[in-house]
Amino acid sequence: RRSSDLSAFVGCRKGDDLYVSPNQPSHATPATMLTGIEANTTMYYESGMARIASIFMQYQSGVSAQSLDYDMYTMTSFDMDNYWSGLYVGGMKNSKILFDKYEATYPYYGGIARVCMAINLGIATELWGDVPYSQAFQLENNINQPKMDSQKDILNSIQSLLDQAIADFAKPGSANQSLPGADDILLKGDIVLWTRTAWTLKARYHNLLGKVDPAGSAASVLTDLTKGMTSNADNCYTSHNSSSDPNQWAAFQDGRGYNVACQTLIDSMKNMT
Question: What pTM, to 2 d.p., does this model score?
Answer without folding.
Answer: 0.86
